[in-house]
Amino acid sequence: xxxxxxxxxxxxxxxxxxxxxxxxxxxxxxxxxxxxxxxxxxxxxxxxxxxxxxxxxxxxxxxxxxxxxxxxxxxxxxxxxxxxxxxxxxxxxxxxxxxxxxxxxxxxxxxxxxxxxxxxxxxxxxxxxxxxxxxxxxxxxxxxxxxxxxxxxxxxxxxxxxxxxxxxxxxxxxxxxxxxxxxxxxxxxxxxxxxxxxxxxxxxxxxxxxxxxxxxxxxx
Length: 220
Hints:
Elements: H1 13-21, H2 25-38, E1 47-51, H3 57-65, E2 70-75, H4 78-88, E3 97-101, E4 116-120, H5 130-139, E5 145-151, H6 157-167, H7 173-185, H8 189-199, E6 204-208, E7 213-219
Parallel strand pairs: 1-2, 1-4, 2-3, 4-5
Antiparallel strand pairs: 5-7, 6-7
Helix pairs in contact: 2-3, 6-7
């Protein structure tokens, strides 16, 4: 099945809030814990970048998992950044999290390389996936850890519909529609391997980790 791109940004306030209100607690907690276990040498005070931070739950969990971490959280949607501010308001970790409204195309290198770059469910939104890998190259240094989770495209529209029915049966129609469209917009593991090869990003491995997810991880 050929890829069907979807809009790059969730910049409509109602769509962004519907996403924020969905129950991703278990998934996000597992993502952060798996990242922490994958890179035990990061210590307690890494400099972290979350690309496509959405409503801010993952940056908050990262700051809590690494008590001395500085976390920069980027999203191209102002609606999502506004929701992230709500998520962080009043938390002890808010002072260690910097929210940035920017696309990956416009991401500027930091004063020092990030210890790690993480991303959850950003890649499938991008019309030109190479912009993500080039952004990572701009902001990373030798030894930067990369941990990226995303959807992987099924073989057919029928399989995509089956996945929606299996995993989002009780969700609002907006989320079911978004999930279906995102599955059609996602890449396959082989496509992502080709993207990494073209970008010259060695040290990163790609694997399918569920019937709907792929994982990119490694150290540059």
